[in-house]
Write a structure and sequence with these properties.
The complex is a heterodimer of chains A (about 425) and B (about 120). Chain A has about 425 residues and is of the alpha/beta class. Chain A has helices spanning about 1-30, 40-50, 75, 90-95, 160-170, 195-210, 225-235, 245-250, 285-290, 330-350, 400-420; strands at about 30-35, 55-60, 65-70, 85-90, 100, 105-110, 115-120, 125, 130, 135, 180-185, 215-220, 240-245, 250-255, 260-265, 270, 275, 280, 315, 355-365, 370-380, 385-390. In chain A, about 35% of the residues lie in helices and about 25% in strands. By secondary structure, chain B is mostly helical. Classes of the chains: A alpha/beta (about 425), B mainly alpha (about 120).
Chain lengths: ~425, ~120
Amino acid sequence: MTWTRRKFGTVAGAAGLAALSARAARSQANGRVVVIGGGIGGATVAKYLAASAATLDVTLIEPKQRYTTCFFSNFYLAGLRSLESLTHGYESLAQQYGIKVIHDTAAAIDPVAKTVKLAGGANLDYDRAVVAPGIAFKFGAIEGYDEAAAQIIPHAWNAGPQTKLLRQQLESMEDGGIFVIVAPPNPFRCPPGPYERACLVAYYFKQFKRRSKILILDAKDSFFEQDLFQDAWSRHYPGMIEWLPGQFTGGVKSVDLKTRTVKTAGETFNASVANIIPPQVAGELAQRAGLADQSGWCPIDPMTFESKLQAGIHVVGDAISGGEMPKSAFATNSQAKICAFAIAAALTGREQAAPHLFNTCFTILAPNDAVTDSITFKPVAGSIKINDIFISQVGESDELRRQGARQADGWYAAFTHDVFG
Amino acid sequence: MTSKSRHAASAWSIRQIVTLWIAAGLLVLLADRSIAANDNQGAQLAAMCTSCHRLDGRDKGIPSTAGLDKERLAGAMMAFKSGQRSSQIMHAVALSFSDGEIAALAEYLAAQPTGTKQR
């Protein structure tokens, strides 16, 4: 009996132990992830890693104490939102999710030793690194427009001081002035952004500077949701917005800061206020860390967002070669979640579900008139392809557009909570 | 009954118990893994929802999914998928999910208590 009992106990114990060790294996699985960049991509990866794989050691590196969203910053330019309402801190990520938030700059990444060197001197070891550097501007592509010039003629394509500068200039502009927007070539951050900016600045002019006009000098011959924008311009802002395609102007060649003149191949335009949105490439760290190819963007595996150039480093957001996926905050958030689940799978053995990539943008034509695009994507042969696409149509009911505007407001609150809350 | 036969009978029944325990242990393990796997898939699919919907009951313009049972959630997704309920965004999202994914998602969302942390 003693023998049988002992055997009974051992076997039962083994079964129990097996159950325990399965749990122990999960809870002891450990890994260090260093996420560089506290914008939408970096903050989302960090949060979803920390929330879904509690045993991972997640560090977020971001020099700024607070992040101002580029999306919805056109509302601020129109005087419809404060910059403060678009600004978010990292307290929740640190306190609720246990993410180590370090306010410093990543100076270098060593992909062989797997360390990130911070400008402050510290070295951080990682099992996986995530780089979410956003965009950098190709200063010099337009003669006379460099980083210093942006302090006089803002690009306002990173939100914060640049957006504030543009708003100040628009506020002090005399009625009857011309606001020139120079729109960039593809690919660039936020495809509807320059044209939404025209809408919302026109909305501001319509109330306070009715004789003022907006001129868009585009590098392109067509743009995203063009029919929806041109319909909105004629309905809401008749005679106020003129768009000149690249084939008409030959492209913007140079800018004179003193006279605020913008020269195209054929003509010179005098601006009262100018906003030059330069051509773009992946953020500077991506270039230095060897994550970008000749295109200036970072090739990635769309199943995991691991770099195709540097093993163990993942890239998400505006910096990637995203195939058919646009550069938007929503797309970035979607990529960041897939990236987080892929890293959790690699480090903890937890299974990764089939990835779903999605983008929707609420585009504001007027405060009570918003349109949306809803696009699902799928990884195909190492790139990202459109699966299904639905876009608002010209001629939709006012009620549907009002509903879109209400949803846009709710979306901003829920989305920023998803990223920073 | 001899002592030997008592012993044999008792040993047999203990062997049965042992077998049952092992089987039960395995079942527990398998069930645990299967629930964890479904929960894991549901959590990853739900991450797509949280870009617009809050799971904690708070909402502003876009309804929270909190407090809805799985039949109602799955029914809504199927209605968005077929176009019976109109919403451009939800139609696109629902079309990208298989019926199995909708079931896993609905089960996960329905199990989230109001006020839960997002996952």
